[in-house]
């Protein structure tokens, strides 16, 4: 597969020179086109349990961006290298209904980029430290049976800031996920594959307190903004996505865009992201809680 | 062959080696597998002009990590490509089948290809070759930790060898974190049990970061320390790369 430098961001949004100046000037004056300040989010709405076939699911809308995350759990075998851990895989699909440019293989490159960024931000280091999802909680019988968690994200409609939206949707879906309780038949010897009984009534909830949120800071001109729309993204020089957990620790970081950044700016961005994420986590948590309450009634 | 005491060799039977030899990474007296200090990089070796057919190429060796990169072009973009008034950069990273301890597929590595592209595009003056494409093909001959940083550094050297205009050489270094310790330029054994990693790609003369990735949990002071370590190491690495280029240039004059 090739990675050619297609002018993706500039090609999709057709803006006149005047509009470009308007966006850039607005950001420089801390008053963006939709009236927001540089560090203000658009309205976030969360709906959980949108997909009945999944173990957990959520739909997150941030302004015009609309994404769905679904989580399916299947019993599988742990890998030989890590017999005490379950497996998690994250796949993102950029539907061509969201944008004509995603048609056919057009969305593949963006989808791969988003999947990798989310894996990096949510799954922690090789040893499992700092992971948002505790992989050792997915084990049923060590070395024999574990839960395989399939996290699938779908971009329904795209108006910028996809990574943050997907991160929030996955967080909400994880809160919504119930893993069936498994009874392991006693008395099987060491060599045999143990028999299990998967309950369809009792479900266990995940501990989602460690799941980080992702804050993408998009640099336009000399300033950077959160929650950029696709028009604003087309004017970016570079963007840094930082995932931060409740403790304010960095859980992952990726950079997009070809233009380099001064190290001091990156450190500045990190401290801004830590500040912004605290508000975002609170906002998301209350949205998720009300969505869960609404689903139950 | 261990012919112990001339006894008849016993029939081979796979022994249940359950005693997992986890390196004592959290002890105070831990030494790295190759005996380096925590903040000491492996000796780097670079050589340009490894492939004759390419416009430019470079070979890099960091300990056991061995990488070869060739650069082709700038040449005409494929017909299907749209017109573009800036040049295109095409990156591909692949592994040989024998690069990893377990025999691999030897296939392309999409994640690394994308990362290499993102790391290099900020350093290249794409405006200098409109309508054309530069292909960067990297082959990891032997993978032994810090593969991607070595590929990136080697690729920027190959680009310089090919005479592609760049703002600066792009150097890349990664650090691994183990609870409280930071270990620079990790080898494979260390990467497999690291708590987190930080990779920085920068242009040292411009003091500009073109790419960075972080995994695992990091506190702010730790990320500060890690970035500083990487930036210092990148500056040193770029000096080595530059001297390699100068050497090659003075050799060709003679």
Automatic annotation (TrEMBL), chain A:
Residues covered by the Exoribonuclease phosphorolytic domain: 41-180, 210-274
Keyword Iron (UniProt): no
A UniProt-annotated Pfam family: RNase_PH
Keyword Transferase: no
Subcellular location: Cytoplasm; Nucleus, Nucleolus
InterPro entries: ExoRNase_PH_dom1, ExoRNase_PH_dom2, ExoRNase_PH_dom2_sf, Exosome_comp_Rrp42_subfam, PNPase/RNase_PH_dom_sf, Ribosomal_Su5_D2-typ_SF
SUPFAM superfamilies cross-referenced by the UniProt entry: Ribonuclease PH domain 2-like (SSF55666), Ribosomal protein S5 domain 2-like (SSF54211)
UniProt entry keywords in alphabetical sequence: Cytoplasm, Exosome
An example Gene Ontology biological process: TRAMP-dependent tRNA surveillance pathway
A single cellular component GO annotation: nucleolus
Origin superkingdom: Eukaryota
Any GO MF annotation of the entry: mRNA 3'-UTR AU-rich region binding
Similarity comment text for this entry: Belongs to the RNase PH family.
Protein name (Swiss-Prot/TrEMBL): Ribosomal RNA-processing protein 42
Organism: Sphenostylis stenocarpa
Automatic annotation (TrEMBL), chain B:
Subcellular localization, as worded in the UniProt entry: Cytoplasm; Nucleus
UniProt feature, compositional bias: Low complexity: 7-18
GO BP terms: nuclear mRNA surveillance; poly(A)-dependent snoRNA 3'-end processing; rRNA catabolic process; rRNA processing; seed germination; U4 snRNA 3'-end processing
Domain Exoribonuclease phosphorolytic: 40-164, 168-228
GO CC terms in record: cytoplasmic exosome (RNase complex); nuclear exosome (RNase complex); nucleolus
Keyword terms: Cytoplasm, Exosome, Nucleus, RNA-binding, rRNA processing
SUPFAM superfamilies: Ribonuclease PH domain 2-like, Ribosomal protein S5 domain 2-like
Pfam families for this protein: RNase_PH, RNase_PH_C
Molecular-function GO terms, alphabetical: 3'-5' exonuclease activity; RNA binding
UniProt-listed InterPro entries: ExoRNase_PH_dom1, ExoRNase_PH_dom2, ExoRNase_PH_dom2_sf, PNPase/RNase_PH_dom_sf, Ribosomal_Su5_D2-typ_SF, RNase_PH
Residue ranges of the region described as Disordered: 1-24
Family membership noted in the UniProt record: Belongs to the RNase PH family.
Entry protein name: Exosome complex component RRP41-like
Organism: Sphenostylis stenocarpa
